[in-house]
């Protein structure tokens, strides 16, 4: 006999657990299966994000940034610190505490919303049934009208060039667990993950080289803003080499030898540790998606329609496993949207207004189109920039580097995109997202009062600059 539910969610990460919670709130009988095991073999909900990605990386970014400021910024405030050192073991323990506090909270949320949390593996059996296999090997069958695949993603392993060995060559999870600061650190990939991890270990003392095959830095970010970010990171000591295609790696007792090519010339570098951060791929191993006939695309992502339905009746998919922006907040919104659709509500996710952030210092954040992308789509655009150098608040913080750029449509005055590099722009971005969600025009933001002194004034200045009206910066266009 199978245990009967209304909804069974396979995967307890940022897509799965919110879907399960919202479904529980809507009156469904729900089970959420998750297979995650931490290094010490303890199970935990929350997926990569809470256990080995978003949260632990932000904990280390915060700790390493505080160390960097103590060394290089506090003196400007008249705070003199001599002999500041790093206790990496304590830093790692704090990271773990932050992560575990959040993952344990999911169980409490499950209990409060009537969700049955099951720790182990889920396998599609067909006919509305799922096999659950606990970590101790015990199995049972669950049945449900609605089965949701939310199995997430995993790091891409360059098996032929730089295969993970868990020691010298590691993925993003391994890069968060170093017990010593490498003297020389190599990173393949200058995307979000590569730059964040590079920032952590560079601040803590590692001589860090990032090898990026693409000729441009952060191509998804507006060119002016990405150039500004690259300049700031280089000034901090990150050695970012663009157009560097890795050809091979060789692991030895002392470290890793990396051979790469730049402008047709082959070069080699020696590193103590090498992080491979070239992207993520969908996790479907053991799910039996192929066996059940669930359609996958050429890259292994589960194919869904606009309502997250797969080609198999009663089976849905959300989050990283369906592709698109591999971001926790995008996955959360899909999970909630699907649960509400199952209850008959009319909901949808606006994929044109998905925020993105790199949590370095300065931070990089963006939403919507860059100037280049807007022009490529046929828009006639007008742009404006607000530098943090003109911000009294940023100067008082000793963090006046960076800028905010606004891209708007000439014909409608609507904001098409906002791209930022500067202090705490991860928080400033929310105003841009909300404005674009409500189809705000530059005039709407220009007429909105912003507190002084605040970092948010820089966004206001950037919007004013779009029409040559900036007050605290020189206008390039006057009308």
Automatic annotation (TrEMBL):
**Cofactor binding note of this UniProt entry:** Binds 1 FAD per subunit.
Identify the keywords attached in UniProt to this record, alphabetized.
Cytoplasm, Disulfide bond, FAD, Flavoprotein, NAD, Nucleotide-binding, Oxidoreductase, Redox-active center
Q: Which organism is it from?
A: Stenotrophobium rhamnosiphilum
Q: Note the superkingdom of the native organism.
A: Bacteria
Q: Which reaction does it catalyse?
A: N(6)-[(R)-dihydrolipoyl]-L-lysyl-[protein] + NAD(+) = N(6)-[(R)-lipoyl]-L-lysyl-[protein] + NADH + H(+)
Q: Where is the active site?
A: 452
Homology family: Belongs to the class-I pyridine nucleotide-disulfide oxidoreductase family.
Which coenzymes or cofactors are required?
FAD
Q: Which Pfam families match?
A: Pyr_redox_2, Pyr_redox_dim
Intrachain disulfide bonds? 49-54
**Which residues are noted in the entry as FAD-binding?**
58, 122, 151-153, 320, 326-329
Pyridine nucleotide-disulphide oxidoreductase dimerisation domain: from which residue to which, for each copy?
354-462
Cellular component aspect of the GO annotation: cytoplasm
- Classification via PROSITE patterns: PYRIDINE_REDOX_1 (PS00076)
**Annotated localization:** Cytoplasm
Q: Which GO terms describe its molecular function?
A: dihydrolipoyl dehydrogenase (NADH) activity; flavin adenine dinucleotide binding
Domain FAD/NAD(P)-binding: from-to ranges: 5-335
Quote the record's miscellaneous comment.
The active site is a redox-active disulfide bond.
The EC number(s) this enzyme carries: 1.8.1.4
- Name the chain's protein: Dihydrolipoyl dehydrogenase
């Amino acid at each position: 006999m199978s245990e009967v539910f209304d909804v069974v969610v396979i995967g307890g990460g940022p897509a799965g657990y919110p879907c399960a919670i919202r479904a529980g709130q809507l009156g469904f009988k729900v089970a959420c299966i998750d297979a995650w095991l931490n290094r010490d073999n303890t199970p935990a909900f929350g997926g990569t994000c809470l256990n080995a990605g978003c949260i632990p990386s932000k904990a280390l970014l915060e700790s390493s940034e505080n160390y960097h400021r103590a060394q290089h910024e506090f003196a400007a405030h008249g705070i003199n610190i001599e002999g500041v050192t790093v206790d990496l073991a304590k830093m790692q323990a704090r990271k773990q505490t932050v992560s575990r506090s959040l993952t344990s909270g999911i169980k409490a949320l499950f209990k409060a919303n009537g969700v049955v949390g099951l720790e182990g593996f889920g396998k599609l059996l067909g006919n509305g049934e799922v096999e659950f296999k606990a970590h101790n090997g015990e199995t049972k069958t669950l049945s449900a009208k609605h089965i949701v695949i939310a199995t997430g993603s995993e790091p891409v392993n360059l098996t032929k060039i730089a295969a993970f060995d868990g020691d010298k060559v590691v993925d993003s999870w391994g890069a968060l667990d170093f017990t010593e600061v490498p003297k020389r650190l190599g990173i393949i990939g200058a995307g979000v993950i590569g730059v964040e991890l590079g920032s952590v270990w560079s601040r803590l003392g590692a001589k860090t080289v990032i090898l990026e095959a693409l000729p441009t830095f952060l191509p998804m970010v507006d060119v002016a803003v990405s150039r500004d970010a690259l300049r700031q990171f280089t000034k901090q000591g990150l050695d970012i080499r663009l157009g560097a295609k890795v050809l091979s790696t060789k692991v030895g007792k002392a470290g890793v030898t990396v051979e790469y090519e730049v402008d047709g010339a082959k070069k080699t570098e020696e590193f103590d540790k090498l992080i491979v951060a070239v992207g993520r791929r969908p996790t479907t191993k053991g799910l039996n998606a192929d066996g059940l006939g669930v359609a996958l695309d050429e890259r292994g992502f589960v194919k869904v329609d606009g309502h997250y339905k797969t080609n198999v009746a009663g089976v849905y998919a959300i989050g990283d496993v369906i592709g698109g922006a591999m971001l926790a907040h995008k996955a959360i919104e899909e999970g909630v949207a699907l649960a509400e659709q199952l209850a008959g509500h009319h909901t949808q996710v606006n994929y044109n207004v998905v925020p993105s952030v790199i949590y370095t210092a300065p931070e990089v954040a963006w939403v919507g189109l860059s100037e280049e992308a807007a022009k490529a789509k046929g828009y006639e655009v007008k742009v404006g920039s607000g530098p943090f150098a003109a911000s009294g608040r940023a100067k008082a913080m000793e963090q006046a580097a960076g800028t905010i750029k606004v891209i708007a449509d000439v014909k409608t005055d609507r904001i098409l995109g906002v791209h930022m590099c500067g202090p705490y722009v991860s928080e400033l971005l929310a105003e841009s997202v909300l404005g674009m969600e409500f189809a705000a025009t530059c005039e709407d933001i220009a007429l909105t009062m912003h507190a002084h002194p605040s970092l948010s004034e820089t966004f206001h200045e950037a919007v004013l600059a779009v029409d040559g009206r900036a007050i605290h910066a020189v206008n390039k266009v006057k009308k």
